[in-house]
Amino acid sequence: ALGSPPLDGVGAIAGIRGWTSAPILVVSGRTDSVDKVRALDSGADDYITKPFAIDELLARVRALTRRGVGGDADPVVRVGDLTVDLSAKTVTRPGPSGGELVRLTPTEWRLLEILVRHSGKLVTRQTLLSDIWGSEHVHDTGYLRLYVSQIRKKIEPEPKSPRFLITEPGMGYRFLQGGSDGGEA
């Protein structure tokens, strides 16, 4: 539902859109155009209001799948000597016998994936905390600092002087594919 707590539907759409391009069809009783526009601008692909005929719902689902929304393969991102494969959910680096897998915990992967999918853009601490641990943890910034530090040790050439996983003090984090100078945990 678009207005249900603890995370409203528009926030949920934006959160889902942050990690997948799968089709999102909103089914709602809200008929106001403002609600529809907010949902669509947040990343929904279509919107249908109640009551509706089941054949209309099925036709909209068919249209979304026919258009191939979400059908594109996830990108493979090159970062320095690392390869981040969003589809395979792997990070590899060159090794003596070819590609060497960088081992990430599920939480480390989720954090890195969100940042990579928003490459170059600031992702706020609150967004990361809410997307990974839930809205009740939006003030637990210690989690983020710990996980960012762990990821940096695994992917940064010099973790104390990160080039890819950049801290925006007081705001959040930014992932830079081309690398940068500076940024502390």
Automatic annotation (TrEMBL):
<dbReference type="InterPro" id="IPR011006">
    <property type="entry name" value="CheY-like_superfamily"/>
</dbReference>
<protein>
    <submittedName>
        <fullName>Winged helix-turn-helix domain-containing protein</fullName>
    </submittedName>
</protein>
<dbReference type="InterPro" id="IPR036388">
    <property type="entry name" value="WH-like_DNA-bd_sf"/>
</dbReference>
<dbReference type="InterPro" id="IPR001867">
    <property type="entry name" value="OmpR/PhoB-type_DNA-bd"/>
</dbReference>
<dbReference type="InterPro" id="IPR039420">
    <property type="entry name" value="WalR-like"/>
</dbReference>
<feature type="domain" description="OmpR/PhoB-type">
    <location>
        <begin position="74"/>
        <end position="177"/>
    </location>
</feature>
<dbReference type="InterPro" id="IPR016032">
    <property type="entry name" value="Sig_transdc_resp-reg_C-effctor"/>
</dbReference>
<dbReference type="InterPro" id="IPR001789">
    <property type="entry name" value="Sig_transdc_resp-reg_receiver"/>
</dbReference>
<keyword id="KW-0238">DNA-binding</keyword>
<feature type="DNA-binding region" description="OmpR/PhoB-type">
    <location>
        <begin position="74"/>
        <end position="177"/>
    </location>
</feature>
<feature type="domain" description="Response regulatory">
    <location>
        <begin position="1"/>
        <end position="65"/>
    </location>
</feature>
<dbReference type="Pfam" id="PF00072">
    <property type="entry name" value="Response_reg"/>
</dbReference>
<dbReference type="Pfam" id="PF00486">
    <property type="entry name" value="Trans_reg_C"/>
</dbReference>
